[in-house]
Amino acid sequence: MMPLALLQLCDSLFPIGGFAHSDGLEAAVAQGQVTYGVELRTWIDAVLHESLRRVDGPAVLLAWRAMADDRREDLHLLDEEMYAIRPSSTGRAASRAMGARLLATWREIHPDHLLQVEQGARLTLPVAFGVVCAASGVESRDAVEAFMYTRLSATVSSAMRLIAIGQTEAHALLAKTLADVPHVRSAIESGVARGERPGAFAPAFDLAAMGQQYVTSRLFLS
Question: pTM here?
């Protein structure tokens, strides 16, 4: 059974500032790469299989394990790796800002949880998510799947503010992508067991993220 703490963590109302970031989707829309539902489905599928499968998902799992085993040095090395792996300066700043907000908020509302990281720590978002889940008694597989859900649903939420798509169509696209999440989580676990580290070659995402600062009229910071 999924802990209630995880449901709270995944709720869009949880104040980490995610509503202010589109992860490059706004720039892709401005460039005409994503304009309707079919293109959005392609985008969120790529988010799942490229960004989450190869970068953020493994980071959540590795952070969870490092926290559970009290390997602080490994945790900080992972965080530095996750910060450096993003080519976009706005993406790096966004991940650190949301991760810091997640840690600070969780520490304040759940002081009984053993969140043994230093006060004011600014970890990247996937690392912070893994840390909070481990400290809150959330199983690692649930943590990885929940993180993927939060990022995919955030992408769909951004899309509904950027393109002409209704809620029903948007959530139908999200549901189709979510059906693949358990398989991707299993692939992440297998990859980490083989010693895989976070890393991906996703030039379309990287170029979109770096082009965000040049969007003429912006709704999102990244």
Answer: 0.91
